[in-house]
Amino acid sequence: MTKNRRRIKRPYAQIGSYKTKKVFFVATEGAKTEREYLKALNKMLLDQQYCTRIEYVHTSNKSSPLYVLKGLKRYLAEKKPVPPYEAWLVVDTDQWLDGQLAQLHAWAQQSSNHGLAVSNPNFEFWLLLHFEEGSRIKSSRDCTNRLKQHLPDYNKSVDISKFSYDQISKAIDRASRRDNPPCADWPRMPGCTTVYKLVVNIIQNETQES
């Protein structure tokens, strides 16, 4: 992140007489790459003293989308978070059936503070968009091989020093242009991701100019 970036007015939300941070609870299918990316994004926010916080939710050692959903629902039931907050599911299409993803989509539609972000074929495609347009991606292997052209040492780990706000902005732009018209539920074709919607919500919570 550049040092000369403009500070922004932090939009704390009022609850009674208290001011609170907005928290994004994010449960992911992958246990490493997604978690490290979210930690990197959270660190960027903390470094700038932003009010938004991202809380990674470890749901299960099983990667099935339904386990991710059950884990997030259990976490929220136990934690009983106080608004304002958003709860998001981040999964890949992989080999999962539409019926499995449909249950996640149905949950996301139940509340305005629920969200679902799906990458086709996988989360690495979202990472790839930080560096290029991501054209002609057909499979998870294509995605990983192309990503390694930009991150030669990539092995499911995300190096925070490799990502900047400028790259995140470019990834959002590239992903939104590929998701056109915006899919109603999740991307059916390889080379598309809706993770940008989650990142946009996080960043928009910090965009009131000072």
Report on the structure:
This protein has 210 residues and is an alpha/beta fold. Mean pLDDT is 85; it is low at 1-20. The longest helix is centred in the first third of the chain and has 15 residues, at 33-47. 39% of the residues lie in helices and 16% in strands. The protein has one domain (16-204).
Quick structural summary:
The protein has helices spanning 33-47, 65-79, 98-108, 123-128, 140-150, 165-178, 195-204, and strands at 13-15, 18-20, 23-28, 53-57, 85-92, 114-120, 192-193. The protein has 210 residues and is of the alpha/beta class.
Oligomer: single chain
Structural class: alpha/beta
Stretches with pLDDT under 50, minimum 5 residues: 1-20
Q: How many distinct beta strands?
A: 7
Number of helices: 7
Task: Tell me the radius of gyration.
Answer: 17 Å
Can you give the mean pLDDT?
A: 85
- Which series of helices and strands comes N to C? EEEHEHEHEHHHEH
Overall helicity: 25-40%
